[in-house]
Design goal:
Layout lengths: L5 H7 L9 H30 L20 H22 L6 H15 L3 E4 L3 E4 L5 E2 L6 H18 L9 H30 L8 H32 L2 H6 L7 H21 L6 H35 L1
Antiparallel strand pairs: 1-2, 2-3
């Protein structure tokens, strides 16, 4: 009788399963065993990947995917600080003729708001038609521009320290700070013109002190507003509106006041102190206004925020 394959014999019914030798049975079961072994190996791999421990803490921004140091955030921080320092140095050494890139659009906006006409005089500034008001280099708002730029750029680096930021955020922060500076300066100068026309006087403050208080009040008010808006926009991109409302994100937190206040103090008091401005008597009077005037802005706003937060907690 001609020998047939084991599988063919079983299929044809010529040989029963009991008549197969052990070697024939093992040979016939080989494909099934190979499939089972492959399936078990794949299942073990999936279980190992599933049970692999995951760190509950995200990597700090100084570490990459494999734990190596990521120098990009540190370089970006250095560029931000060097840019602010370079502009501060330029502001301390340049003449009014070199500030027309910010004084010219500011004066144009002031003319639209106030109705007055100004003319530029070299090494002096923009003077109005009756020659009673001068927009000089000190009115350029460069200190506010530096403060706003630092606040926006450092805020982005801090809020997204677990991510890798594109370099575009630095020029974007500079452009936003420049635009806000133009608006803020326009409001400040137009307010000063209006107060001058109304002959507003104070028993406690001299005209110069009143002008200083008005300037610091408007500058810090716009700085605080800029920070609140930037925080809301960042939260809106990273969370849904329901999550923000559930967490109370629509109300300012303590950090909302502290962070811009620290940046403002650092640029208006810290840098002049390092440069030796404390040797001049006018600096101490100016420092007192810089220290106290922002608190006049913050305290009512903070009180209103606490009242709204307490009311929101009662509704929850």
């Amino acid at each position: 009788m001609r020998m047939l394959g084991v599988t063919q014999l079983i299929t044809n019914g010529s040989v029963s399963g009991d008549s197969l030798s052990p070697w024939e049975r093992a040979y016939d079961a080989l494909p099934s065993l190979t499939y089972v072994f492959k399936r078990q190996s794949r299942l073990k791999t999936q279980i190992k990947e599933y049970l692999e421990p995951v760190s509950p803490h995200p990597r700090p921004f100084s570490q990459g995917e494999k734990g190596e140091i990521n120098w990009k955030p540190y370089v970006q921080l250095s560029v931000v600080l060097l840019s602010a320092g370079g502009l501060k140095y330029f502001y301390s050494t340049a003449s009014v003729n070199q500030f027309r890139w910010i004084l010219a659009p500011t004066t144009w906006l002031v003319e639209i708001v106030s109705g007055d006409r100004f003319q530029f005089e070299s090494h002096a500034g923009y003077i109005n038609s009756n020659r009673t008001f001068l927009i000089a280099a000190s009115c350029a708002g460069v200190n506010f521009l530096i403060t706003a730029f630092l606040m926006l750029a450092l805020g982005q680096l801090w809020r997204r320290h677990t991510q890798t930021l594109s370099w575009i955020f630095i020029p974007a922060a500079a452009l936003v700070a420049y635009g806000v500076t133009l608006v803020t300066n326009t409001v400040r100068i137009s307010t000063a013109l209006q107060l001058r026309a109304m002959r507003v006087e104070s028993d406690w403050l001299t005209p110069g002190q009143l002008h200083r208080f008005e300037g610091i009040f408007i500058y810090f008010g716009f700085l605080l507003l800029l920070y609140v808006v930037s925080e809301r926009l960042t939260n809106k991109r990273s969370s849904t509106s329901e999550t923000i409302l559930a967490q109370g994100g629509f109300l300012p937190t303590l950090r909302t006041f502290i962070f811009p206040l620290l940046i403002y103090y650092a640029t208006t008091l810290g840098i002049p102190l390092i440069n030796g401005a404390f040797r001049h008597r006018d600096f101490w009077e100016h420092s007192l206004f810089v220290l106290l005037t922002p608190l006049v802005v913050i305290l009512p706003f903070a009180g209103f925020t606490l009242m709204r937060r307490a009311r929101a907690n009662k509704l929850l």
